[in-house]
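User: I'm preparing a small set of examples for a lab meeting where we compare how different chains pack in three dimensions. I only have the primary sequence for this one, and I'd like the structure in token form so I can line it up with the others. Please keep the answer compact; I'll paste it straight into my notes.
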Amino acid sequence: MVSEHSDAPGGESAALALKILVAGGFGVGKTTLVGAVSEIRPLRTEELLSEAGQSVDDTDGVDHKTTTTVAMDFGRITIRSGLSLYLFGTPGQDRFWFLWDELSQGALGAVVLADTRRLEDCFPAVDYFEHRRIPFVVAVNCFAGARRHGAPDVSRALDLDRGTPVVLCDARDRDSGKEVLIRLVEYAGRMHTARLLDSVG
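Assistant: Understood. Below is the structure token output for the 201-residue chain.
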């Protein structure tokens, strides 16, 4: 979850690097979010959609999509001095979910991107993180032309556990994506602290 390294002689200043997953359904904007916020050139493992995948990849609502992530996306963003986030974008299709267990090892938390035009596509990600007790926020990617829904409506539609944050965002916008990540770090920090207190109480 956390790696540390010293920035100064004698270990006076420890820098934290937190691992964050970016998950959600096919074509929801995971690669876009990682690329928008990353301060390094993001690592991408995208391949062109093929005819062989047409029978299993539902492209309704994302007809313009021509590539798909087949392993992961990776990026890095510095939130403030001494705090960096390593972002791992997960593949969205069912056939790549065997990678999720590896990617989730040591993660502080996750962002589940949602598209209200295809809200059901993020149910598997929500279930995955709830069952593994990995803190997550739902970030509604506000696509042009999509009907706008408030955070409470999305929370009810997804039957989220009480307190799970829902935020509206534009995955293409760096500042919007950064705000999502800050909300996640704050929420995950509260969740981990509460669990620690419970374990010693």
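A couple of notes for your slides: The two ends are 23 Å apart (CA to CA). The chain has five helices and nine strands.

User: Perfect, thanks.
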